[in-house]
DNA sequence: GGTTCAGTGCAACCAAAGGTTGCGAAAGGT
DNA sequence: ACCTTTCGCAACCTTTGGTTGCACTGAACC
């Protein structure tokens, strides 16, 4: 099912603000806490905390540049996260399909014995 | 990007306990707060709250049966959630690929001008 | 060199969410 | 009738996302 490490990644990308931040870092390239906060409805400090969380799980890494800290997405780690997303999706999808097959089988056997 | 409705679905399936609950409801069929709590590391009340959350966003629905309340996954809604999961995954995947292409292009132009 | 300005980090504080315990109420089995 | 099981509600604790306020540092400008 899901391990502790998986849950860390999940909870990291589960937050809507952090998802948007990853989106921004991917679409606009590396950015700082201040630059990100300008494009988000939260303060710089909130962004800074989120960056710390994402950094801890390895989804991004910082690169000090003078007085700024440039954050950048770790592509390999994000690829891993995406893989886990699709894995859960695939699991649920498969179970939904199985349930549907069973439901259809029941429906068939019910209509088969309808004339009794 | 992400709408408010999307975020509701996300935060619903973002919680590890709720994800496991959905897993259990899919694999073992309908269940009650008590039956689920027996297979989870949390109390019945915690499970009950999660069930309420999942019910509010429509991912599951309850069916009162005597003194019990049987909860069951809403397949259509879960299918929608899965679609959103894979949508985000696909977006990030595409951006990762684009970044990789750009990086390779830069690498090429760098090695081209290496002999100067 | 000193002043000023933008970017950061740290600490205190607040509200919401996940989790717990304790209790009373209602449906079932004996 | 009694006891058990399941549930819902309320109070409480802890974590987390968010805020404000302040002190610090690198860079630019005089």
From TrEMBL, chains A, B:
Residues 1-93 form the HTH arsR-type domain. One of its GO terms (molecular function) is DNA-binding transcription factor activity. It holds the Pfam family HTH_20. InterPro entries: ArsR-like_HTH, HTH_ArsR_DNA-bd_dom, WH-like_DNA-bd_sf, WH_DNA-bd_sf. NCBIfam families: HTH_metalloreg. This is Helix-turn-helix transcriptional regulator. The lineage of its organism: Bacteria, Bacillati, Actinomycetota, Actinomycetes, Micromonosporales.
